[in-house]
Amino acid sequence: MDEDRRMLPAADVPRDGTVLVTLRPVGDVETGTGDQGGDGEELEAMLIELADGIACYRNYCQHWTDVRIDRGNGATVRNGEIVCEKHGAYFASDTGVCSFGPCEGSVLDAIDVAVRDGHVVLADPDYAFERLGPTERPDAAGGSRIDFTGS
Ligand code: FES
To answer: Which residues form the Rieske domain (predicted)?
Structure first.
């Protein structure tokens, strides 16, 4: 695994919150929702510790795709579910499936990561790791509003 795909020590990823990383799409990434990551622009992903590893999801809600779930200081996590504070959608930390809320049944956009030698590494070939923390874009979650139903 390339050194530049190492993101952070696995021990720094919380279970009761999330931590942001900035990525850049390098493959044929389906942006599809909002303009996050469009044209190779940076995008945010949030990491959360699971019982058996680390999960990584792009940082936008499936209800309103221009809404960041982690606003820069960690998402709210309750009983193993990531909460979008905007309208109270709950997403299972391990699967990304929305179990409750206006976008129930939708799924967060997952990015493959792995833990190697105590570090979280980006395993998804469609993305490059830029840095820890949020993007520098004010509209980091995306630009247009497309909801779960596509309307
Ligand atoms: S924007 Fe996330 S629940 Fe509505």
So the answer is: 23-122
User: How many CA atoms, within 13 angstroms, populate the side-chain half-sphere of residue 89?
Assistant: 26
pLDDT in tens, 6-51: 999 999 999 999 999 999 999 766 654 444 555 678 999 999 999 9
Q: Is 75 in the pocket of ligand 1 (CB under 6 A)?
A: no
- 79 dihedral zone (left: phi>0; alpha: psi -120 to 50; beta): left
Q: Are 76 and 85 spatial neighbours (Cβ–Cβ below 8 Å)?
A: yes
Give, using CA atoms, the residue closest to atom 3 of ligand 1: 87
Long-range interactions of 37-41: CB distance < 8 A, separation 24+: 41/137
Domain layout of the chain by residue ranges: 3-132
- Residue 67 CB–ligand 1 contact under 6 Å: yes
CATH superfamily of 3-132: Rieske [2Fe-2S] iron-sulphur domain (2.102.10.10)
Residue matched to tokens 């109270």 = 88
Instruction: Tell me how far the alpha carbon of residue 22 is from its chain's centroid.
Output: 10
